[in-house]
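anyone else get weird line breaks when pasting these?? whatever heres mine. first is seq + tokens for prot A
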Amino acid sequence: MVVLTSNNYRDMSDALKRRCIHLYIDYPEPELEKRIIRLKLPGIDEALADRLVCAVNHIRELDMKKRPCISETLDWAQALMVLNIDELSCQWLNPEPEAFWGTGDSEMHTYKAHCHEVRTCQNLNQLIDFIEELVL
């Protein structure tokens, strides 16, 4: 018996699909995902794990080709721990001019209410400076 896993990111050939039994396994409930995170990363702050699982579940609701799996949640959690980040906050890097933010065509119009801080980066150097501020 061979078990193939798929996150629907790569297409399988029709010939392969005809020879397989398909079983869909949904993402875990938030409480189970938190238990998995605490099991795999025992030193993680409880509040960070809660916020992280909440954020990942919101991301999974977006219309995207590949939604984050548990492995991405664990990678993100581990990266936050390595960087000594114990709180999630939304920081938006926006290339649009500020005068454009209030219009219905602006991405900022949609997301500004969810952000704690908004900065406009006009060039790569400003973006790099901002990223360094976040991680240092």
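and prot B, same format (seq, then tokens)
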Amino acid sequence: MKWSNEELAILRREWKNGKHIRLWRDLLPNRSERAIHQQGLELHGARGRTYDAGNSMTWRAIQRVLADGSMRSALEISQITGLDRNWVSRELMNHYPAAVHIAGYGPRKEHGYGGRLWKLGAGKDAQRPRAKTAAEIERKRWRKLKKERPDMIAARTARQKLQRAEKAGKLIRRDVAASWI
């Protein structure tokens, strides 16, 4: 279907406004989003970035939460605002390091680092804590096993004791062939 002059005028006017096509495609009721996109590319070239930084609802909500100078993780911000955690994280990364910085790290998780704690305003990022070594992780696991599963520890100790005795030659096993005597 051929584009009318009115449709082309609307496309020309709306193409460079930075808004997503979904927001203004109702101005062209007989055209799909894909058709609008293809015609716009053909006539006017690439649109570039349609994201308007600093103008999203998510960013404004993040600014309200962090305005008191507190440090919060993306999860905390999403729980306070009721917004999706992934959108909050994406918005924080879009504005990092110009408008937010990493002020610290939360408590360390079972494995790995604690979450980033964000603070409003540009600034120097906090030093990332060192990772746990394999020995530290294993030591913590062993302590947990001792407390929660002493039966498992006892079985392991018995196996090790038997292996050491076999290796040293101190284990006297019953001879199956001589058991008939």
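btw re prot B: The chain has a mean pLDDT of 85. The beta strands are 100-105, 116-120.
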